[in-house]
């Protein structure tokens, strides 16, 4: 597929999806929405990809919705978008929402936040599994200052990342949040000097791609996203079931063998 508003590449078993409207601070558009969704699907089904990095070109990750598009937004657009075809028919139906398909991707998705992260840009960063940010990045939910509500599931995701009180503050005030505060409240996992952000992010991504079992990562990710819907007993039962599967898998045998033989693992994801 030819992409219009993103760049897509795969190298060293890492797929990179780059929002590519740097002249507009990567403001979100319907075309970008289509491109990102397709690229995420392509990454999720590519056996040569073990980790996905989502980032922005230029000086911003994503400064929010394109205001020209927002001015002419038809309220029916929200209704139509709720009827998108499923990301994958074999995955949980409650993950088949406009942007909530990220948890159904069986690979780690890392947001590499290279600058302003606002509104719908913050929504996408939150749906990623990990967030590495440049230490000059500024964050804002933005919605309340545009007369909008907490959109696209951010009211569910944000409290689970930063806690209820912090989420209430960030959503009600829509104030600007510094990178230092973002790290303190757990909004991001790691801060890096801008010139080292790419190096540090890809070093982490390569570590996952080269040294961690793909099958283990897939199950662990699913476990963490399913826990809010489970009791402790249900989580334990599910973990025991998955442990039996893992013990019979080739990744477990390879993990033990590589440790005993003091060599890098050669995981297959099985």
UniProtKB/TrEMBL annotation:
EC number of the protein: 4.2.1.17
Primary enzyme class: lyase
GO biological process: fatty acid beta-oxidation
Source taxon at top rank: Bacteria
Matching Gene3D superfamilies: 2-enoyl-CoA Hydratase, Chain A, domain 1, Lyase 2-enoyl-coa Hydratase, Chain A, domain 2
Protein name: Enoyl-CoA hydratase
Family: Belongs to the enoyl-CoA hydratase/isomerase family.
Keywords: Lyase
GO MF annotation terms: enoyl-CoA hydratase activity
InterPro entries reported for this sequence: ClpP/crotonase-like_dom_sf, Enoyl-CoA_hydra/iso, Enoyl-CoA_hydra_C
